[in-house]
Amino acid sequence: MSAEPQTFAFSAENKAKADAIIAKYPAGRQRSAVIPLLDLAQRQNGGWLPRAAIAHVAEMLELAEIRVWEVATFYTMFNLEPVGRTCIEVCTTTPCWLRGSDAIVAALEDEVGVHLGETTSDGAITLREVECLGACVHAPMFQIGDDYFEDLTAEDVRAIVADIKAGRSPKPGSRIGRPGAAPASGPKVLTGKKA
After folding, report:
1. 150 and 117 share a domain?
2. Which of 33, 50, 44 is nearest to 10 (CA)?
3. Which of 55, 78, 98, 127 has the fewest Cβ atoms nearer than 10 Å?
4. Which domain holds residue 42?
5. 145 and 160 in contact (C-beta within 8 Å)?
6. Does 138 map to a domain?
7. Are 59 and 111 contained in the same domain?
8. Structure pTM?
9. Which residues pair with 119 in a beta bridge?
């Protein structure tokens, strides 16, 4: 992992994106852009937010730096230290736990070779435990980048990690092909059939 940068500024492309994000908010309400700007900074910086990026966002939004820290430390979507090139964020809250997240965590740790909160020695993969990712009906699940992997089994975990290690992009979504929020046994209402 690289040392924490002492300075941070948005690239020209990201500065234009940041300005467009800020412009969406009415005068005097620009602070509402703090979450999307932190996300943009994290993406630019390889998946984590150094102190300099948080200070830069605070300066852009004319906020006290502590206000930006309050947001960055509250949401698990923000990483305050370096993460691997692939960061697997596994949900272990009640719905996922009830549907087997313990087995998902065990399979991840076994396949990747590190525990939750750790990164492989080559910097390839980080495993993180996170709070609810909002896909409870498709539990157990985890997130990689912007992609959700749902209805997981230990076998699915092994296949996904094998894809990552081989440089392939695993297919996101429900591993059982479940559409939307339909029950695992299939839709029960609005099926188009008359009762």
Report:
1. yes
2. 44
3. 98
4. 12-74
5. no
6. yes
7. no
8. 0.84
9. 126
> Could you read off the pLDDT of 103-117 as tens digits, one per residue?
999 999 999 999 999
pLDDT tens digit sequence for 17-58: 999 999 999 988 999 999 999 999 999 999 999 999 999 999
Instruction: Return the number of other C-beta atoms located less than 10 Å from residue 183's C-beta.
Output: 10
β-strand 125-130 against 142-144: which pairing, if any? unpaired
In single-letter form, the type of residue at position 43 comes to R
192 lies in some domain: no
Residue 185 lies in a domain: no
User: What is the rounded CA–CA span in Å between residue 65 and residue 1?
Assistant: 25
Q: Are 167 and 93 in the same domain?
A: yes
